[in-house]
Write a structure and sequence with these properties.
- The protein has helices at residues 31-44, 75-78, 105-111, 124-137, 164-177, 186-193; strands at 8-12, 49-54, 88-93, 116-122, 141-145, 149-150, 154-155, 161-162, 182-184.
- The model has no long low-confidence stretch (mean pLDDT 97).
- It contains 6 helices and 9 strands.
- By secondary structure, it is an alpha/beta fold.
- It is globular.
- The strands form 2 sheets. Strands 1, 2, 3, 4, 5, 6 and 9 form a 7-stranded parallel β-sheet that branches. A two-stranded antiparallel sheet has the order 7-8.
- Helix 1 (31-44) packs parallel to helix 6 (186-193).
C-alpha cells in the first residue's frame, strides 16, 4: 500500500455527544486509540488533517447540537488540533457526508492536489460510510481503517436489528467489495505512512 505525502486524514465526528447513553451499545473499544495514532502519524509527517464536526440541526433532541458540551470534540482530538506540521482544516456539517459541509471539503482537497483520503471516526455505517462513498464517487482513492472507528447497535424496518459489529462488517463489505474504498487496518496505514 502506498500512502502519498499529501494523503489527507479525515477525522469524522469524534465528539463527546457519542459517549451519551442515548446511542446504546457500541463496538470497537480500541477506536479512539487507533484514531489518535493515525492523527499523530499524519501530523508528524506533515500530511493534511481534516477535523469534521457534526452540528446537529435537531435541536434539544440531539447530543451533538451546537452550544451543548456533546458538540465538542473528544479531549484526545481537541488536544491534537493545531499541533501538526501540515495543513489542517475544520469542516462543520449537519448531514451525513463531510463533503456537504463548510468549507467545501472537495474544493480544499483538490486545491491542495490531494488524491487519497483516509476516513476515520464515528459512526462507521453512518457519516464515515457516507463520506467514503462520496469520496469514491468524486474520484478519490479512499482508505477505510475499520479499527479506527465505531458504531452502535441499530434497529431498522420490520423489527430487524443488527449489532454494531454486524453493521461494521456490512459497511466494510459494501465499501470494499463495491469499489468505493479499500478497507484496511490502522497498523497497515501507520506502516505505510510512517
Amino acid at each position: 500500500m502506498e500512502i502519498r505525502e499529501n494523503a489527507a486524514l479525515v477525522v469524522v465526528d469524534v465528539q463527546k455527544g457519542f459517549d451519551e447513553e442515548v446511542w446504546g451499545r457500541r463496538n470497537n473499544p480500541d477506536a479512539e486509540g487507533n484514531i489518535a495514532a493515525l492523527i499523530d502519524v499524519w501530523q508528524s509527517s506533515g500530511r493534511p488533517v481534516v477535523f469534521v464536526r457534526h452540528d446537529s440541526a435537531q435541536g434539544e433532541a440531539s447530543p451533538l447540537r451546537p452550544g451543548y458540551v456533546g458538540n465538542d470534540f473528544k479531549d484526545f482530538v481537541e488536544q491534537r488540533r493545531g499541533k501538526g506540521s501540515g495543513p489542517e482544516l475544520l469542516v462543520t456539517k449537519n448531514v451525513n457526508s463531510a463533503f456537504y459541509g463548510e468549507p467545501d471539503l472537495d474544493a480544499w482537497l483538490r486545491g491542495a492536489g490531494v488524491g487519497q483520503v483516509v476516513v476515520v471516526g464515528i459512526q462507521t455505517n453512518m457519516c464515515n460510510e457516507t463520506t467514503a462513498r462520496m469520496g469514491g464517487n468524486l474520484g478519490y482513492e479512499v482508505f477505510f481503517p475499520l479499527d479506527a472507528m465505531h458504531t452502535f447497535d441499530l434497529e431498522g424496518p420490520f423489527g430487524w436489528t443488527l449489532t454494531a459489529d454486524e453493521l461494521s462488517r456490512a459497511t466494510a463489505v459494501s465499501l470494499h467489495g463495491g469499489g468505493f474504498a479499500k478497507v484496511v487496518t490502522t497498523e497497515e496505514l501507520v506502516g505505510a505512512a510512517g
